[in-house]
TrEMBL record:
Belongs to the HypE family. InterPro entries: HypE (IPR011854), PurM-like_C_dom (IPR010918), PurM-like_C_sf (IPR036676), PurM-like_N (IPR016188), PurM-like_N_sf (IPR036921). Residues 46-156 form the PurM-like N-terminal domain. It comes from the Bacteria. PANTHER family: CARBAMOYL DEHYDRATASE HYPE (PTHR30303:SF0), HYDROGENASE ISOENZYMES FORMATION PROTEIN HYPE (PTHR30303). Residues 169-316 form the PurM-like C-terminal domain. This is Hydrogenase expression/formation protein HypE. The lineage of its organism: Bacteria, Bacillati, Actinomycetota, Actinomycetes, Kitasatosporales. It comes from Streptomyces gamaensis. Gene3D superfamilies: PurM-like C-terminal domain, PurM-like, N-terminal domain.
Amino acid sequence: MSTSCPLPRAENERVLLGHGAGGRLTAELLASTVLPATGGPRGPLEDAALVPGCPDLVLSTDGFVVSPLFFPGGDIGSLAVHGTVNDLAMRGAEPVALSVALLLEEGLELAELEAVLASLGKAAQEVGVPVITGDTKVVGRGAADKVFITTTGVGRRLPGLSVSAAAARPGDAVLLSGPLGLHGTTVLSTREGLGFEADIASDTRPLHRLVAALAGLGDAVHVLRDPTRGGLAAALNEIAQDSRVRVEFDEGALPVPEPVAAACDILGLDVLHVANEGCMVVFVAADAADAALAALRSLPEGGGAVRLGEVTAADGHPGRVVMRTAVGARRVVDMPLGEQLPRIC
């Protein structure tokens, strides 16, 4: 009989909630497991991809597992439409059509499903994008949590826009179209009954009209990214790494609503890591920054647009993001490791 004690299985050999958070664990899972198995493309991982052989068409797919299904400002149905439309928009595309796949848990009340689908249909109509195909599956009790939605979107690139996470350049201005932290703190507060939802609501909304407003600036617009999973910290780190540049921004320029700041202080959250669903980061040539801000502010969804900072040369530290704090110090903003707030989108 052997007296040896087997080594415990390493925790990183199992899938964790953090692997779906959009941070460092997600990047590691993609690089080590998903992309090698599927033959995924080399280079920056974008929110949506150009269709091979059809350079004007853009394709995106996304899964939505938010809990709870309904929250102030939105629900899983409208979120599924907005999230996919926004992924297309971040590649400079207007939405053409959507596909919707539903994974339903046995025992789900039909009234609840009807409410989700009514919201999804209304959101698609308001955007002006038809749902042209889809699928429905039902699994046993406990095999899913009420409703999971997967949406696929097809878009057409807007003339003059050619944006990529790898296209940021030294000298670029970094803009943000709206306030931070509303979606993540709203969903968490509703889920846990914390009471903040009385003062805040999710910012979930489509951003394709903002992108269309920027199209007139043409190749002065270099990068578009919506800071969803992993928040602003993840979005800026991905862009800095893919473009091999350094990004600096001012803490005092961050548009953080007071209820969000209060919720983050009480819960110990970093607002830079909290998910957003209705704002986007724009990297634009410095001489076009004022025009870009004016274009964003010309629409209600961009009324709170601000200039955050700028892009500098890497200087031996490619991929670094630095925040200039309110007390005059500099703080390195790292890529989030895992998930502060699971089941957010």
